[in-house]
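Dock L-rhamnitol; give full complex structure.
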Amino acid sequence: MDRFTSAKEQYEKLGIDVEEALEKLSGFPVSIHCWQGDDVTGFDQDGPLTGGIQTTGNYPGKARNPQELMADIDKVLTLVPGHFKLNLHASYAIFGDGEKADRDALRPEHFKVWVDYAKSRHLGLDFNPTCFSHDMVKDNMTLTHPDPQVRDFWVRHCQACIRISEYFYDELQIPVLMNIWIPDGYKDIPADRYGARARYKESLDRILDIGYDRSKVKVCVESKVFGIGMESYTAGSAEFTLNYAAYKKILPLMDNGHYHPTEMVSDKISSQLLFFPEIALHVTRPVRWDSDHVVLFDDETKEICKEIVRNDAMDRVYLATDFFDASINRIAAWTVGLRSVEKAMLYALLSPNGKLKNMQDGGDWTGVMALQEEMKTYPFGDIWEEYCRRAGKPVGMDWLEQVREYEQSVLSKRG
Ligand code: RNT
Ligand code: ZN
């Protein structure tokens, strides 16, 4: 008997339908963040990354233009099993020769190349206004700035992004998640905590007032507890964001790097699922701070995925990756991160969730602990390998050889 068949039998003895798990996973969309390939630089500006986020490292081979970034994403797509969307930022607009539009004047045609790219790879698209790395970010503020001219600029930008998201839907017929995250905050103890949040609320109201088809575009707001240079206050705190999303019936987005170190997003998902029809997640790995390390097959990633699966919410949760590491090969970073998310989802799908819940409800905490521990040494790797094999993607460490070869033949030639 081969390893997959024997592993499958072992899981089936616990009542787990392995074929169904593989099937479900292969249809579950994970949105790949485009910004791992170029350290969140984008194509519309030459300045530094601002907004209190940081990419550390200077590993050679960073993508310098759309062609290189697309080639790199293509490479990643050959290495990762699963069903994907591509998550773009507005700063990745692609302009024709001599053309340039500022962020508040972006139009669908500036993303046509991406739409063609997505179509030919059968990828859906998601989108993000880019409210950072731009000279209209004043004093670390965008939609909350006291100066109405600054706010207006960013309102127009976000409205333009809604129109571009609609265009993505019209071209691809796949709903587009449009995520609003702003860095706005204060380094030191503010004298007024209300004003910036009131202005954020008003700006968001104006953005949504342009109207859009909610079945095509799903607008969400991402919360954050702090940024570099915004250590004492953020306008888009967890409470602001959750309340705003409820008030306007849009989606809340939790990024698991955006909470205090002992707060766990896995513990928050169930509460949100009870009150929102749909929610969104950014999966990252915060090491001591919102460091955006590459996602691993670690306890919290598994726990987040378990919450999605055992609450029967695979069609209510929009999951996107969000990390940026420039200290290692960027293709490998993407690959490890995405394979880890897929593994964690598979692990969750192969967990005896019904049995565990029954034990818990019956007060059998001994059984819950024992079975959860037992599952950790089940032959999960054999099922994972089969998932990769069936998807025609590298099994085991084979992918690393392919990354090394790509580094030799492509990345090392970049200046
Ligand atoms: C920043 C947020 C945000 C960004 C991307 C680039 O802290 O996590 O999602 O990482 O938009
Ligand atoms: Zn994020």
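Observed: The domain at 28-349 is CATH 3.20.20.150 (TIM Barrel).
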